Amino acid sequence: MGTITPIYGLNWPVDPPVTVIGQGYNTAYNSTLDLRSVFSAIVFIQVVNHGRFGDPLPIFDSGMMLRIKRHSMSGPTDIDFYGRCGEIVRYLDPVASATTNLSTSISVGATSLSCVSTEGFTPDTRFPLESNICLYNLYYQNNFEILRVSSIVGNTINLDGYTNYPHHVDGNGADVIHANAMCLDPIELPGGSQWDLNFICDTPSNNVYWIRWFAQLYRADTYTA
Amino acid sequence: MISPKYTDNILLFKNKIVNLGGNVAGQVFNVELDLTTKYGAVLFIQVGRETTVDISDEIQDEGLLISIRRLYSYSGNKLDHPAGHFFRMRNDIVIMQNVASGVIGNNVIALTTLPACLPGEYVYFRGSSDSSFTNFEIAKVLKVIGNNVTFDAPLFINHTGDVMFTHADVLTPLTIQGGAIWRITFDYGAAQLPDAIAVVRCMAQTYDADMEL
């Protein structure tokens, strides 16, 4: 009498942690997820309006169009038959995001952030998007994460969870904190094909979106006698 | 033949207090459920609330927020993705009443005063000075006559001498997929009042494997 259990390919980093698009008109970023030999995948997508470098109050005149398209097993066909039939579309509104900086370095596991200012940040709203923030440091490049604000007291942001990376205030600058960080509900994609992920926007020059996406794969079942 | 194998009665937390009026640290509580080697799970959540004043207008008309989030990781770090299932509990004036008689196995109790609850709502019991909430039980009101309250099922705990609160909440069981760690968060945000708490209980049943018969 044997036992069958699932095998997941956890936390598959498909691309570098953060991809930047939007520094120009008609910019797009495309990536492919190969699910031809797995049962399914759960895809996590995070998008942050970084704003316009050097402009504290950026005006966004384009949101982000996200298209997830299923291919034939060998790839896209000329007429994109599968893609147009199996297309998942999300439009992310062009929400300008408040920005501030950390005022004190923090380590992994911190539940609150000391900031230079909290103006424009919103705690614990009905709509999760509004109370999500992004922390990132362009110098360190590897500490991008999105967290949710529980409450704000003065210039302190209290989280409903905890940080998973250290965040810095040092000679390389202070980590940036953005409001309105967008986390899409995880999307389940069935296996048996390749999928395209297309991020498309048309922004004024130097407006920037940060994108991060990951997939958790349901690879196989294993049999133990 | 293949049949599924489940694990029952996984207690994620029992009678955890989320402090609606105390310090910041008391207003958020997290627990994680590891489904990285399982097919899935069903979550069960109950919320009893205690407050003697209406706190709805003071915090943007918002009550306790329950979020159930699937985590992911990168380079060994377990990362948050605040999206998915969010449930906002209502905020009303909750009324506490004393139980004159409430016997285990019966579905009728007698209060010392006229009941404030209404048919169809959930109520929550605890001992009158029960700081560990060992008598925590939630029941659904079927009928109210005089000082008596009839429930839709017999009680599992003896509540004679206990207290009963109106406006408890029971979430519809939620099925979640395997392949990740899930985080269940209870968050009230900023503190406003000194005497309000929520008592929450969360359990799970997991779908672990399939068995060859």
Largest sheet of chain B: 6 strands, antiparallel, barrel
Reported for the largest beta sheet of chain A, the result is: 6 strands, antiparallel
Strand content range of chain A: over 45%
Cα distance spanning the termini of chain B:
5 Å
Radius of gyration of chain B: 19 Å
Give me the Rg of chain A, rounded.
Answer: 19 Å
Give the ordered list of helices and strands of chain A: EEEEEHEEEEEEEEEEEEE
Strand content of chain B: over 45%
Strand arrangement in the largest pleated sheet of chain B: 8-9-12-11-10-13
Subunit organisation of the chains: heterodimer
Global outline of chain A: globular
Largest interface: A-B, 47 and 47 residues
Q: Which class do the helix and strand fractions of chain A yield?
A: mainly beta
Choose one word for the global shape of chain B. globular
Distance between the termini of chain A: 6 Å
- Per DSSP E runs of 2 or more residues, the count of β-strands of chain A stands at 18
* Structure classification of chain B: mainly beta
Mean pLDDT of chain A: 81
Residue stretches of chain A low in confidence (pLDDT < 50, at least 5 long) are none
State the helicity of chain B in percent bands: under 10%
Q: How many β-strands of chain B, per DSSP?
A: 16
Structure description:
The complex is a heterodimer of chains A (225) and B (213). By secondary structure, chain A is mainly β. In chain A, 2% of the residues lie in helices and 49% in strands. Chain A has one helix and 18 strands. Chain A has one helix at 81-85, and strands at 3-12, 19-21, 27-34, 40-52, 64-70, 87-92, 99-101, 112-114, 132-136, 145-153, 156-159, 169-170, 173-174, 176-178, 182-183, 187-190, 194-201, 207-224. In chain A, the strands form four sheets. In chain A, strands 1, 2, 4, 15, 16 and 18 form a six-stranded antiparallel β-sheet that branches. In chain A, strands 7-14-9-10-11-8 form a six-stranded antiparallel β-sheet, with no helix packed on it. Chain A has a four-stranded antiparallel β-sheet with strand order 3-17-5-6. In chain A, a hairpin with a 2-residue loop joins β10 (145-153) and β11. The radius of gyration of chain A is 19 Å and the shape is globular. The mean pLDDT of chain A is 81. Chain B is an all-beta fold and 213 residues long. Helices cover 0% and strands 54% of the residues of chain B. Chain B has a six-stranded antiparallel beta barrel with strand order 8-9-12-11-10-13. Chain B is globular and about 60 Å long. The chains are: A mainly beta (225), B mainly beta (213). Chains A and B meet through β1, β4, β10 and β18 of A and β4, β5, β6, β15 and β16 of B.
